[in-house]
Amino acid sequence: MTPVLKRLGSFVVSIYRCVRIGELCVCEIFEELNVEQANTSQHLAVMKKQDILQSRKEGLKAIYSIKYPEIIESWMFWGKYLSNRLMKI
User: Fold this and answer.
1) Which of 34, 56, 64, 70 has the most C-beta neighbours closer than 10 Å?
2) Taking the model in full, what pTM does it have?
3) Is the distance from CB of 76 to CB of 82 less than 8 angstroms?
4) How many angstroms separate the Cα of 64 from the Cα of each of 1, 39, 48?
């Protein structure tokens, strides 16, 4: 696995871990992950396009949450699986 794919997978899992507890705005997510807002926003947009997340506007803020609660169980499994695989690389 290339370093880019490794980083992307890790980043997506990190975003998931942030929003699985409920709604968060982009600013809360990028602060939690300690990355640039633009980078976080791009990943959130991809996850929204893939129908994983939903968003709503609250003033100027974009608030994200998991679109389907069933995704949480699946992501818990795949998050553990990917984390284990990435550590072996």
Assistant:
1) 64
2) 0.66
3) no
4) 29, 15, 9
Residues with Cβ within 8 Å of residue 37, at least 6 apart in sequence: 26, 27, 30
Structural contact between residues 54 and 48, judged by C-beta atoms closer than 8 angstroms: yes
- Rounded (10°) angle between helices 26-33 and 37-49: 120
How many Å separate Cα 41 from the centre of its chain?
A: 10
Residue 63: per-residue pLDDT: 92
Q: Give me the sheet containing 61-66, strands edge to edge.
A: 24-25, 61-66, 53-58
Considering the chain, what is the average pLDDT of its residues?
78
| More confidently predicted of 13 and 31 | 31
Query: Domain boundaries in the chain?
Result: 3-88
Question: Which architecture, in CATH terms, is 3-88?
Answer: Orthogonal Bundle (1.10)
**Which tokens sit at 21?**
């507890």
pLDDT of residue 10: 66
